[in-house]
Specification:
139 residues, alpha+beta, Aminopeptidase, seven-stranded mixed beta sheet, 3 helices, 7 strands, 31% strand
Length: 139
């Protein structure tokens, strides 16, 4: 089951981000933008969409190691993209160090420049390493 995150989910989200080697910078302050996957009463995945005007930043896509390969990550990303469309977001960008071959299944492609507003996010201000791949999707 995919649902919006609540304040009570932060500890589980934090654990997922840490075990997935994803940055915590800025995540807690955007907790309202997270969705979580719940399986047997336990948080098994998360993803977030930070909004910057008509642009969005997909971040913190993480799935518990025991649930990987079961489509949880795909469900999370599809839910985030549905939210983005419903909110009138025109493009979504992301930074990744490990999944640049995974995100094209949703239409993401490598990009060279991020929208100005998104550059204000914690991920673009140093939470992600310089080696991260920038990807973009027009909605």
């Amino acid at each position: 089951m995919i649902r919006p995150a609540t304040a009570d989910d932060w500890t589980a989200i934090e654990r997922l981000l840490i075990t997935s080697d994803l940055p915590l910078d800025g995540a807690r302050s955007h907790l309202r933008s997270f969705v979580v996957a719940e399986h047997d009463g336990k948080i098994s995945g998360c993803a977030a969409l930070e909004r910057y005007g008509t642009n969005g930043l997909l971040r913190s896509v993480a799935v518990d190691a025991t649930r990987r390969g079961n489509g949880v990550g795909e469900e999370l990303v599809r839910q985030i993209l549905n939210v983005a469309r419903a909110e009138g977001i025109e493009s979504v960008v992301l930074l990744t160090t490990t999944a640049s071959e995974w995100f094209p299944r949703f239409g993401f492609r490598r990009a060279t420049e991020a929208p100005v507003g998104v550059k204000a996010s914690a991920e673009f201000r140093g939470a992600c390493p310089e080696s991260a791949v920038l990807m973009s999707l027009d909605l």
